[in-house]
Amino acid sequence: MYLYHFGLRELPFTLTPNTSFYLGLAPHNEALAVLLTALKTGEGFLKVVGEVGTGKTLLCRKLLNDIPEHFVTAYIPNPYLNPDELRRAVALELGVKQAQRMSNQLLTQRIQSRLLELHGQGHSVVLIVDEAQALPEESLEALRLFTNLETESRKLLQVVMFAQPELDQRLANDKFRQLRQRITFSYKLRPMTSSEVESYIQHRLSVAGYKGAALFPAKVCKRLTRISKGIPRLVNVLCHKMMMLGYGEGEYMLTNKHLNMAAKDTEDTATINISSAMLTSAGIAVLLVIIATAYVWLQSGGPT
User: Fold this and answer.
1) What percent of the chain has pLDDT over 70?
2) In the β-sheet with 158-163, what is the strand arrangement from edge to edge?
3) Alpha-carbon distance 66 to 297, whole Å?
4) How far is residue 245's CA from residue 15's CA, in Å, rounded to a whole number?
């Protein structure tokens, strides 16, 4: 809708984790450095925790892209699996044939044989679990038992968990103390600062092809940081809506007025004081409908 208006090749603020938009901000670079260092030293359990929208899945995909070549990875994006389903998912990721047809005992043996085979070929194997807070209790225990597979010198399988803070709350329970004590490195992602938000916005616009003057002035970025609480996902949502509003008004500079309107239409943003002269959430909804209608009208070739 607003690509041509702002001279963009693609949408800069989509919610899909796209590593081409990755910006090495301090919290993500630090987390990535911790993970890569710990994996290279053969640590068994690693954990990265962050609030919803702080970029865990993007970091997870960045790790998958940047991990050294001698690592073999098994990736579990949706861990709401019982222990049997988890074992079979891991087996499939490792290339164990006919994993769905085996008994649990035979499957465990085949997984261990496959890990030994990969170890003999000079590979390290890492299991990466996204949204790990969703793992059922029995599956958390199954995950711990995976790390019992080892040679005399090192673990056959390393595990990296990306999770929301709810995982820490669950692991605080005494029943998970064995798993908790095996987590050798843990990192907590923090929200972005005001300067990081400004860099983040400029970077995504640049990747998307923008070449003009700053669309989001520093004072707008500072206010946007407060409203979004520095959460990358909320920054994306707000920026996208602001650009839609700027396009609808024919503007090429985004202001606090656009930010206020976008914030009133967005869940989970911080409470802000907005002048009664600003549009209500109903107002922005109507404006977006007008923009969408105009877009469909233009796509159809205008009046007939």
Assistant:
1) 88
2) 71-76, 124-129, 158-163, 45-49, 183-188
3) 44
4) 18
At residue 304, does pLDDT exceed 80? no
- For the stretch 271-284, pLDDT in tens is 655 544 444 444 55
What contacts 63, CB < 8 A, 6 or more positions away? 32, 35, 36, 128, 160
Rounded-to-integer distance, Cα 150 and Cα 184, Å: 16
Q: What percent of the chain has pLDDT over 90?
A: 65
If DSSP states are collapsed to H, E and C, what string results for 131-154? Answer: CHHHCCHHHHHHHHHHCCCECCCC
- CA atoms in the 13 A half-sphere facing the CB of 10: 11
- The pTM score is 0.84
Residue 180 has pLDDT above 80, yes or no: yes
- Give yes or no for a contact between 182 and 147, defined as CB atoms under 8 angstroms apart: yes
What's the rounded Cα separation, in Å, for the pair 49 and 35?
Answer: 12
pLDDT value, residue 235: 96
Contact 53, 232 (CB under 8 A): yes
188 beta partners: 49
- Residue 106 contacts by C-beta under 8 Å, 6 or more apart in sequence? none
At 99 the pLDDT is 80
Cα–Cα distance for residue pair 69/299, rounded to 1 Å = 46
Long-range pairs, 243-246, Cβ under 8 A, ≥24: 243/2, 243/6, 243/13, 243/215, 244/1, 244/2, 244/288, 244/291, 245/284, 245/287, 246/2, 246/5, 246/6, 246/215
Contact 64, 93 (CB under 8 A): no
